[in-house]
Write a structure and sequence with these properties.
Layout (H helix, E strand, L loop, with lengths): L1 H6 L7 H13 L3 H18 L2 H9 L1 H7 L2 H21 L3 H9 L1 H7 L2 H18 L3 H14 L5 H17 L3 H31 L10 H22 L1 E3 L5 E3 L5
Antiparallel strand pairs: 1-2
Helix pairs in contact: 2-4, 3-6, 4-7, 6-7, 6-9, 7-10, 9-10, 9-11, 10-12, 11-12, 12-13
Amino acid sequence: MVLPLCADFRNLVMQPMILPMVLTIAESQDKSEFELYTLLALVPVLGTASGETLLLLVKHAELIINKRMLKTSHEHLVSHLLPLRVRAYDDNDAHIQEEVLRRSAFLAKQLDVQLVKQAILPCVHGLALKTTVAAVRVNALLSLSDLVSTLNKHAVLDVLQTVQCCTAVDRSPPTLMCTLGIANSILKQYGIEFAAEHVLPLLTPLLIAQQLNVQQFAKYMLFVKDILRKIEEKRGVTLTESGMPKVKTPFF
């Protein structure tokens, strides 16, 4: 059944109507059947898709990735699906940009780190910095938060630079809370010393942002105080209520 449907992919007007049916059928195919019939028909579409067809393929890219045979998986991913994603990042449609950003972390996990840094990361940075659509910026920042675990320290510093540029022009609550999410991801990945040196200088000016409501401000303060508390613990020094330092005696 899928082959006659795929023949209609040549008609660009019909693609957005046919593609959902083809993808529904693909869900019930085993990997070898999918590669032999459906994927071969999809490859030309992956290379030229735009508009609604591009949006549909971005939404269902995980299905295509999961259905492919292991021996051809990486080759097709780099040759066809990665360029599809890059076109989606570069598209002018905000809905397409939002969808591809939501799925950035999943794609990154399928690629080696160098490809992520070369192909995906610049696109996410670019959308975070250049978009005028709040939802796109938020999804770009969420993507950066998800990608932190795959990045080295130099790349994380680039993330912080992008966040600083974003918060310089946009201190809306969603952007500020995404910033806190990125800070949390960096703390988990690189620890107290890195966070104290590079994350706290970014966050402390945001504590006075009037856009934060009470609950959001409390989350910011909790994060900052937790870092300071852990620094005290690491140094073995705490301050008394009078402000005097108290050195903890190591327990042996």
